[in-house]
Amino acid sequence: MAGRFSPGSPSTRTTVRGGHVPVPVPADGEAPLDLGLTLGPLRRGPADPTFRVSPDGSVWRASRTPDGPGTLRVGPDGAEAWGPGGPWLLDRLPGLLGAEDDPAAFVPRHRLLAATHRARRGLRLTRTGLVLESLIPSVLEQKVTTDEAYRSWRLLVRKYGEPAPGPAPDGMYAMPDARTWATIPSWEWHRANVDGKRSATIVRAARVAARMEEAAAMAPADARKRLELIPGIGPWTSAETIQRSNGAPDEVTTGDLHLPGIVGWALAGDRTADDAAMLELLAPYEGQRHRAARLILLSGRVPPRRAPRMTPGAIAHL
């Protein structure tokens, strides 16, 4: 099944059966949506099999929806979707493109953030409405380098997922369903360089997938509490998930190896900041702390590296 949707202003919904749908001209004072900035956090590495960017700037996503796998393409000329999950993806496209986000609620109180906010006016905070889709790769990213986590995600999705429906670019896959995640044998986790703690966490979450997905309709704080009922899911993982699934502008990530130092350096010249210091610096942005942290990362102002990078592990060879 295919359908089309015109993103235009994220709050405008137009569905047609065929033809190209032009993107409406933004209203006075409204910045055009920046697809790359808005949907970029959903990409898990340059070779993510669920995410592609075409030369024309169109974004392709393959998702596992409650109705099954679906492929969504969003581009300058509109959007279209295929597969059993296609209608579900089109129905929730406004949230994906930031219709529920309010950038005007952010009031910069630092020169760096004011400049970055102006330069990135097309940024919206996405809301996918899908929890496992963000939870599983976030668990894979626990305590390992991002490159390791991206490789694990890529191997598992390609092996156990389904080819993306419709005319998706070659090599795109929708991630496995919850039952498949819960039945991946231990040696396949091992081959994907995923240790027992992380694989057990994913299996536990997959076994109660329906309860996990309910969190997408909850207030962010309640959603995080729901996720953290699963052993192995703590504040870092729940924040990384709910930021994407719920479009939560205030859910700042704590427990991160680098973020406190980056925020501390950007706002106070303090590269030694811990979580407590980071939260104190972000206190003026209460209600928008995640957006503030995102803008800091987009500013490119990071402390000079002193410590060596985390050494990748290789459990598959132990």
Order of helices and strands: EEHEEEEHHHHHEEHHHHHHHHH
Q: In whole angstroms, how far apart are the ends? A: 46 Å
Strand order of the largest sheet: 2-1-6-5-4-3
Shape: globular
Number of strands: 8
Structural class: alpha+beta
Question: Oligomer, anyone?
Answer: single chain
Largest sheet: 6 strands, antiparallel
Low-confidence stretches: 5-26
Average pLDDT figure = 90
Structure notes:
It is globular and about 45 Å long. The chain is α+β, with helices and mostly antiparallel strands and 318 residues long. Strands 2-1-6-5-4-3 form a six-stranded antiparallel sheet. A two-stranded antiparallel ribbon has the order 7-8. The longest helix is centred in the middle third of the chain and has 15 residues, at 146-160. The chain is 39% helix and 10% strand. Strand 4 (59-65) and strand 5 (68-75) form a beta hairpin. The protein has helices at 35-39, 86-91, 93-96, 111-119, 132-140, 146-160, 178-182, 186-191, 196-207, 209-214, 220-227, 235-245, 259-268, 275-282, 289-299; strands at residues 3-5, 15-16, 51-53, 59-65, 68-75, 78-82, 162-163, 173-174.
What descriptors fit this protein?
318 residues; alpha+beta; Endonuclease III, domain 1; two-stranded antiparallel sheet; 15 helices; 8 strands; 39% helix; 10% strand; 3-methyladenine DNA glycosylase; DNA_glycosylase; DNA-3-methyladenine glycosylase activity
TL;DR?
With 318 residues, the protein is α+β, with helices and mostly antiparallel strands.
